[in-house]
Amino acid sequence: MKFLCSAIFSLCLLQHTVSAQGLDVLVLGADSTAAQDDVKANLDGTGRFNTVTTIDGRSVTPSLATLNTFDAVVTWSNYDYSDSTALGNNLADYVDQGGGVVVMVFSNTSAGARRTLRGRWTSESYFIMEPVSGTNLSAASLGFRYQPSHPLLANVVSFYGGSTAFKGTSSSFSPGMMVVADWTDGTPLILIDETHNAPRVDLNFFPESSNLVPSYWDTNTDGATLMANALEWSAGGGLPELRITDLIPGRYMTFDIQFLSPGNEVITVVSSLGAGPTKSPVGDILVTAPWFQTPRFIADSSGVVNFTTTLPSGASGRTLYSQAIELKGDGTADLSNPVASAIP
């Protein structure tokens, strides 16, 4: 199968530039000031957020009005929350209104009434890992990837939790739970639940890094990228999400692109030559040129594009590399997660 680069696509790229991520995120830790600053610094270091703000959950319970000034929140505990019930109620209301919430150890691993989120968060199953007492702190790394093309794993090459890798051992989960990836010891590491108004993420690791305590997650690996991915995805995707299904040689393949802005155009590039990167005015495209370009499609009112295209019978046994590009009205463009699809 030979894919050709489209001149039309090249012109399109010249008219669009990389957009800075405009998300405003809240770091809400019931933890020391140094710990909150460490998490903030690692998120700031990704260069993917407009602002990263800290609020000390030990002494402050942000109201729904305050939460609504942010696109996404990451929260964890190492001490008691000021008011775990009020915070759980407010965060549940925030999710109902489309706000992204990422919960990390120990907020999702403690049975202590004030160290986990209570109120509606617990009673109406906004948790993914049911908070129970018990953590495993043995060394571990990113293990099996159940959904290797999921946006939560974009650009996550490696992740080492450190020699003290705190992780919850709960065996009770929300009804809509799915595991994206495990630790190397088989414990769930990345968990999602898409049954609420905003997609929920639990990261089963302690967010403080080796910059603060040498035995915590290693900043030479991709923990900051993983947290940034989780915040963006929980905030409504942050970036477009590409999934490819129904690969049937001689018939068709199905493209599903979500988390677009309604009315925006999207194109997808596909190649059998590799995962790039290919330099372009919209950033590094993780597809090797020359490539095939799909027609432009317009996102529906839900921010979704779904279409099928012919998959030649001669493609059997190959791997296709794909990435979607959302063309935005302000002249910028966003790249989706890259997808590698093995054709049966």
Overall description:
With 344 residues, the chain is an alpha+beta fold. It folds into 2 domains: 116 residues, Immunoglobulins (Immunoglobulin-like); 211 residues, Rossmann fold. 15% of the residues lie in helices and 30% in strands. The protein contains 6 helices and 20 strands. The strands form 4 sheets. It has an 8-stranded mixed β-sheet with strand order 3-2-4-5-11-10-9-7, sandwiched between helices. A hairpin with a 2-residue loop joins strand 12 and strand 13. The longest helix has 13 residues. It is globular, with a radius of gyration of 21 Å.
Task: Supply database-style keywords.
8-stranded mixed β-sheet, 2 domains, Rossmann fold, Immunoglobulin-like, alpha+beta
Low-confidence stretches: 1-21
Radius of gyration: 21 Å
Q: Any idea how many domains?
A: 2
At CATH's second level, what is the architecture of the largest domain?
3-Layer(aba) Sandwich
Q: On the 0-100 scale, what is the average pLDDT?
A: 87
The CATH topology of the largest domain corresponds to Rossmann fold
- Globally, the shape reads globular
Write a brief caption for the model.
The chain is of the alpha+beta class and 344 residues long. The protein is 15% helix and 30% strand. Strand 4, helix 4 and strand 5 form a beta-alpha-beta unit.
